[in-house]
Amino acid sequence: MGEESCGQTENTEVSAMRFQHVLALETSCDDTSAAIVRADGFVVGCISANQDLQHRPFGGVVPEIASRNHTLQILPLIEELFARTKFSAAQIDGMAVTSRPGLIGSLLVGVVTAKTLALIYGRPFVGVNHLEGHLLAPFLRDEKYTPPEGFTYPYLALAVSGGHTTLYHVKGLGAYEVLGRTVDDAAGEALDKFAKVVGLGFPGGARVDEAAKQGNAKAFQLPRTMRNEDSLDFSFSGLKAAAVRLVESIPPEQLMQKTADLCASYQEAVVDSLMYKLDLAQKNISNIKRIVVTGGVSANSRLRAVAAEWAQARSLQLVLPPLRYCTDNAAMIGFAGIQRLNRGESADQRLAPSSASYDEDFTASRFALHSARGKT
Do 111 and 33 share a domain, yes or no? Predict the structure, then answer.
């Protein structure tokens, strides 16, 4: 079990809101995380435990193993969180838990734990969409990080992870318009599968990123798909298939020495595809000058560098959450949850986990593209 601390305690007056501190839980996939978050987004404390060692022999996340490990980790994490922050349950005004979307068995552990603690301590709680957490992650702050001055709604957000690749127009809390999404593989999934093809193992995305730093991104030509489509949707299955054929064409004895170039070329194709649609969306939404790139894949060093260069060239305000708030973490769930609690929302003991988002969580795009498009 790997463990990391995402924040440190600092107890200051925040506001006259009823809910000033929440305990948040995140168990949507294979990371177990617990956090205490203040109403203004300050992360009092956040502890996360991964399961990389447990899933590595299988080359990917095994749902049954993930849920079993959540049951072993979640209560000790909460106890450790209270010990590190010197908080007690009496100082917690409410609770937030990821209830959707994700692996149903993993979600169940978090939801049942939150409901049980809510009963024990007599606190209200709320279920949070995991993707909403990522969309609101740029508002988090701690002793080492503060969002850029003036950052607020509305903004354009690219949420990219192992299970999701989606462009949103974030207009306010709970007002998320889906502009485009992947029609097949998510970008993170495509990176993980490529890592497996070239023998880098699990977790793949981070290993591709590391290997690519030593490679030549122009060494191999790989496709950038859906550039002539009349939408902001993404597709990575064609890129993945082309990469598999490319790797199969290389003699096994030469593969190792070409791995860095292969990773750099493949990663560049993924980043190009993401940035092309992000740029197209920004050109199509009037007066959008604030941009967010969030989710696990936003930790990719090449994506962060290219996004920063792009934003600077266009005089845009780009917010890239710190790496600790890019991957799955309870702090982002806590901020989303405390905002909803403070506007009067809550759940009851009938709350059940869902593998998919609710229909009302997001709205479909209603605007038409008008920018010039490139060619595939």
Answer: yes
Domain count, the chain: 2
Q: What angle do CA 229, 132, 225 make, to 5 degrees?
A: 20
Predicted confidence at residue 12, as pLDDT, reads 43
The answer on 288 and 186 residing in a single domain is: yes
Q: What is the pLDDT of residue 228?
A: 78
CA torsion 282-283-287-288 (nearest 10°) is 0
For 5-63, how does the pLDDT look when each residue is reduced to its tens digit (9 = 90+)? Answer: 564 434 444 446 899 999 999 999 989 999 999 999 999 999 999 887 788 888 778 88
Phi, psi at residue 33, to the nearest 5°? -145, 140
* Residue 363 within a domain: no
Between CA 154 and CA 198 the distance in angstroms is 41
Over residues 196-221, the pLDDT tens digits come to 999 998 889 999 999 999 999 999 99
pTM above 0.85, yes or no: yes
Distance (Å, rounded) from C-alpha 140 to C-alpha 324? 11
Determine if the peptide bond prior to 203 is cis (ω within 30°). yes
Q: How many CA atoms lie within 13 A of 42 on its CB side?
A: 16
205 and 140 in a single domain? The answer is no
Residues 302 and 346 both lie in one domain: no
Alpha-helix residue ranges (DSSP H) falling in 227-251: 237-249
Which structure tokens are listed for 331? 């702090």
Scan for tokens 């002793």, then name that residue. 143
DSSP annotation of 148 reads: P
226, 234 Cβ separation under 8 angstroms? yes
- Decide: residue 245, CB within 10 A, 0-12 exposed, 13-18 middle, 19+ buried: exposed
**Residues 196, 174: Cα–Cα separation, whole Å:** 37
Low-confidence ranges of the chain (pLDDT < 70): 1-16, 367-368, 370-376
